[in-house]
Specification:
Blueprint: E1 2-11, E2 14-24, E3 29-33, H1 40-48, E4 55-59, E5 66-69, H2 81-89, H3 95-108, H4 124-137, E6 142-146, H5 154-170, E7 174-179, H6 182-188, E8 191-195, E9 202-207, H7 222-240
Parallel strand pairs: 3-7, 3-8, 5-6, 6-7
Antiparallel strand pairs: 1-2, 1-4, 8-9
Bound molecules: adenosine-5'-triphosphate.
Adenosine-5'-triphosphate is lined by residues 11-12, 14, 16, 36-42.
Keywords: ATP-binding, Hydrolase, Nucleotide-binding, Transport
Pfam families: ABC_tran (PF00005)
Organism: Pelotomaculum propionicicum
Length: 244
Amino acid sequence: MIKLDRVGKTLGRTRVLSDFSLCVEKGKITCIIGPSGCGKTTLLQLMAGLEQPDTGRITGTEEARVSYVFQEPRLLLWKTVAQNIAFVLQDVVTPARRQELIKEYLSMVGLYEYRDSYPKALSGGMKQRLALCRAFAYPHDFLLMDEPFKSLDTPLRLGLVRQVARIWQANPQTVVLVTHDIMDALLLGHRVIVLSARPAAILDDIRIDVPLAQRNVVQEPLPGYHARMLAVLEAENKKSFPNL
Ligand SMILES: Nc1ncnc2c1ncn2[C@@H]1O[C@H](COP(=O)(O)OP(=O)(O)OP(=O)(O)O)[C@@H](O)[C@H]1O
């Protein structure tokens, strides 16, 4: 479990977090959704240890191995698809296990036949699939994903979301997913945290008990959760932009 206890963080002159507390549950996907600039990336960076809190405490991350998916794929362009995964696995698993993991994860996202291609030969969606694959394959205690489906069109995005659901079901892990898109949260979140504008506070905390394989966005209870998230986000938006 990752525990943020009354965390405060200022970046430059911006008070991003103030007395922020959250417990991230083990073996579940926690989605974080909220207005642009409210501090979602900052939260992930604090959990990853890339930033330190000014006040408060973060526990459960000491010695933890973290996998991080950024908004852009961040691939090693001079390495092949398989080598991109092998790179993060070196010194972590045996060479034989490395080959097994590469095959298993590339097959799961339909990229095994591209294992010897270089990233420049892949489409944007394929590159992001590889980045996700690499993050899942790395043996981690928790996986942090920052808008991993951003800049993909809707069909591609939904395909990738379904793929992440399948990978997670094959190997349930502790995941924190930051997204702008309610649909991502409905399809992947066991728990959805809706944040306010800066400094971020938790406006809603929704648990979705439907198994990932059975999620259908037009079948209750998901439309109800969709309406609930939208209402909270719209009310928050009205506070920030009363004239919109
Ligand atoms: N290094 C920095 N120095 C000063 N201010 C920063 C820095 N990094 C981020 N900020 C500010 O902190 C606030 C929170 O940024 P953060 O990236 O965490 O928000 P976010 O919710 O992830 O935004 P978005 O949804 O638009 O990606 C923003 O107002 C941003 O401008």
